[in-house]
Amino acid sequence: GDAAALQALAQQLAKETSDLAKLEMFYALARGNDKRGKDGLVAALAAGRRDVKLEAARRLALLGDKRAIDTLAQYLEVSQLRLGAAEQLAFLAEPRGIKALQAIRADAASTADDKARAAIALGYAGKTEIAPVLHELLADQATTVLVRSPQADDLAVALAALGHRAEPVED
Questions:
Q1: I need a surface site. Which of 4, 16, 36, 37 has the fewest CB within 10 A?
Q2: Between the CA atoms of 27, 28, 32 and 34, what dihedral angle is there, to the nearest 10 degrees?
Q3: Average pLDDT, stretch 44-62?
């Protein structure tokens, strides 16, 4: 990373009062290969607030840091947080997250959106057997959504992670 930019970010971090804003800054530092970034995210895993712990774990998972696993796995049993935690664990191909995602896809009570999110996360986790489902979802996005959605972008990235071209299937 740019040393001057990282230093400016570190100086701003010292002045920031919002815990969540600090996490965003720590993440930016970590992406710039500044050790203070990951150190700050790891320290936040011990925060008293659940939102801070989850956000720190989410950012660490995006960085591929396995220290996020224990924090995220705690929330697989919380129904309102299960899918989000499992999605983040998918970035680390963590078996408990994958199992939760597969359960969400198999559950008749899961919404179509939750099943789609679970499928996308399974793609990120490298589960090649989900590729046909992702292609179907991408085709559905192309025909039913007038504006390009973030989910379509996620589908394309998940397919690319599996080595597939991100093109809708033709009927």
A1: 4
A2: -60
A3: 94
The number of CA neighbours under 13 Å toward the Cβ of 49 is: 9
Which amino acid is it at 119?
A
In residues, how long is the chain? 171
Task: For residues 55 and 94, give the distance between their C-alpha atoms in angstroms, rounded to a whole number.
Answer: 18
Amino acid letter, residue 88: Q
- Do 117 and 150 form a contact (C-beta atoms < 8 A)? no
Q: State both tokens at 76.
A: 């697989």
* Residue-level pLDDT at 63: 93
Burial readout 78-93 (b: 16 or more C-beta within 10 A, e: otherwise): eeeebbbbbbbbbbbe
Which residue is associated with the tokens 């920031």?
Answer: 16
DSSP for 140-171 reads HHHHH-SS--HHHHHHHHHHHHTT----PPP-
Name the residue type at position 85. A
Bin 20: left if φ > 0, else alpha if -120 < ψ < 50, else beta. Answer: alpha
In the structure encoding, which two tokens stand for residue 99, read together? Answer: 């199992």
pLDDT at 74: 94
More confident residue, 82 or 2: 82
